[in-house]
């Protein structure tokens, strides 16, 4: 390791948004361990510990070499205290006992399982754990108490727990494009999320949709949903309307019109291949897709359930939404923290706001 590299590492920026974080890095064993500790803290709703472990993992992902000794880590941002003990243990013994204990812990395993179901957040999973739910069979016994989103999440959990490949994401992209262009031929669609960052797999596929003429976007998601439903390609959807009243400079929540969906992605060799203009499925096929657990369909599955987010933005907000929906979540959090702390600017996926000017205009 050259002295120059060590010097560069001691000057590693504290904000993740100022660092290059490659997809493949040199300290995977340590970052995996720190991320397990972060998830465990998240499951206990301990934000401070969650952030501490996430920040340390993020720093190590940006390190341009494999750590050989704790000494090399001592000046790195966010790597002190508890994280340093974890780093030291892994460097000396190849594993961390605390992490191994967590991985075998019933609460952790159950929370992983339950929060892995679409529509189930930490609070709900905690409640279910306290009620004695430990596995998917337990959950199926209380299906009548689940939300429509959770019922769909549970019904399609085998597919949804599998990662979406880039090839599948591209086919989803083609399906989305073919669908939206039926209604607005020159609509502009961008795949965002992890795939835009160069990942080859993801848990869903995210898209931003825009058009220079805002009127062209009005009702577009409803039209798309309606058409996909008639084709039997929509297994679940929830449409969130644009709510400008909720939009605020200080809020990281966004109010873009959004469709959270589970689509039935035809397999590449199925008759519903992406050339859907020409090859529409017949009503029998659609029925099979709409009711996936019917015995007929299980024997002849030619599709995979895939989570898709469609976000509509006016063109004036598109750049901010693109930045916000490209991720990663930690990068976005750090970018907002940097904007606010260092620049007194509030960033969200609608715009960048000067808080001093805003408070001035409010005082006026
Ligand atoms: P994945 O899907 O596992 O490959 O990971 P990502 O990075 O695609 O994560 P995902 O799909 O949860 O979200 C993509 C990015 O969009 C992520 O940085 C966070 C952001 N995002 C997710 N949901 C919302 C939302 O409701 N509002 C805003 N503004 N951003 C969101
Ligand atoms: Mg994603």
TrEMBL record:
The subcellular localization recorded is: Nucleus
Q: Which residues bind Mg(2+)?
A: 204, 206, 309
Q: Key word rRNA-binding present in the record?
A: no
Enzyme Commission (EC) number:
2.7.7.7
- Bilayer-crossing residues are none
Reactions catalysed according to its record: DNA(n) + a 2'-deoxyribonucleoside 5'-triphosphate = DNA(n+1) + diphosphate
Could you confirm whether the keyword NADP appears in this record?
no
Q: What does this protein do?
A: Gap-filling polymerase involved in repair of DNA double-strand breaks by non-homologous end joining (NHEJ).
Protein name per the record: DNA-directed DNA/RNA polymerase mu
Q: What organism, scientifically named, is this protein from?
A: Leptobrachium leishanense
Span of the entire protein shown here: 126 to 489 of 489
């Amino acid at each position: 390791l050259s002295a120059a590299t060590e010097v560069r590492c001691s000057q590693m920026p504290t904000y993740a948004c100022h660092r290059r974080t490659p997809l493949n890095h040199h300290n995977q064993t340590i970052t995996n361990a720190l991320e397990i500790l972060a998830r465990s803290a998240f499951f206990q709703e301990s934000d401070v510990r969650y952030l501490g472990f996430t920040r340390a993992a993020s720093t190590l992902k940006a390190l341009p070499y494999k750590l050989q000794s704790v000494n090399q880590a001592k000046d790195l941002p966010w790597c002190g205290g508890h994280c340093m003990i974890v780093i030291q243990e892994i460097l000396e013994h190849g594993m961390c006992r605390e992490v191994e204990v967590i991985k075998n812990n019933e609460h952790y395993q159950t929370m992983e399982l339950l929060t892995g179901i679409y529509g189930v957040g930490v609070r709900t999973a905690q409640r279910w754990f306290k009620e004695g739910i430990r596995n998917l069979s337990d959950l199926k016994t209380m299906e009548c108490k689940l939300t429509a989103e959770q019922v769909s999440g549970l019904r399609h959990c085998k597919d949804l727990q599998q990662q979406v490949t880039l090839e599948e994401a591209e086919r989803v992209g083609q399906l989305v494009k073919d669908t939206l262009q039926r209604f607005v031929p020159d609509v502009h669609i961008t795949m965002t999320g992890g795939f835009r960052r160069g990942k080859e797999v993801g848990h869903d596929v995210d898209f931003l949709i825009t058009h220079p003429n805002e009127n062209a976007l009005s009702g577009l998601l409803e039209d798309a949903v309606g058409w996909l439903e008639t084709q039997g390609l929509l297994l679940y959807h929830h449409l969130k309307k644009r709510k400008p009243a909720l939009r605020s400079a200080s809020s990281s929540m966004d109010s873009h019109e959004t469709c959270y969906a589970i689509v039935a992605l035809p397999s590449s060799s199925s008759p519903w291949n992406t050339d859907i203009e020409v090859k529409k499925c017949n009503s029998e096929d659609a029925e099979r897709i709409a009711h996936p657990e019917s015995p007929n369909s299980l024997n002849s599955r030619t599709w995979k359930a895939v989570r898709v987010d469609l976000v509509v933005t006016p063109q004036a907000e598109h750049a901010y939404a693109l930045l916000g929906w490209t991720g990663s979540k930690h990068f976005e959090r750090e970018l907002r923290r940097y904007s606010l702390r260092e620049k007194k600017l509030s960033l969200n996926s609608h715009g960048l706001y000067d808080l001093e000017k805003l408070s001035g205009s409010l005082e006026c």
